Amino acid sequence: DIKRENIAKYFSANEVKIYTHEDDFEAPHKYLGIVEGDDCQTKAHLAKPDEVNARTMARQAAYKLQANAVVFTSCVNIESSQCLAQVVCYGKAYQVGAKSE
Predict the structure, then answer these.
(1) Which helix (DSSP H) or strand (DSSP E) does residue 89 occupy?
(2) Is the pTM of this model over 0.90?
(3) Higher pLDDT, 89 or 98
(4) CA triple 30-34-39, angle to 5 deg
(5) How far apart are alpha carbons 5 and 7 in whole angstroms?
(6) Which of 98, 8, 86, 99 is nearest to 43 (CA)?
């Protein structure tokens, strides 16, 4: 069952551009906060956790902060009681092109 809100949530990550460093911003910017995303392997027969999925989740979180840019600081494998394996990616969310206040 495809729901409109699920489609919008999935594609929201496309609205947030990944930058390597803040020096790469081509316009004034405003820092909005730290974001994180994760990917969890819940069963042995399922796919191993993927950084791409974790970064997509972080970009969706950035979009919720009204960000249009993210600079990833790290992705780490963590131990979790809910997952056989899990990767978490952390980043800084920005609004590039933001008017200074």
Answers:
(1) strand 85-96
(2) no
(3) 89
(4) 135
(5) 5
(6) 86
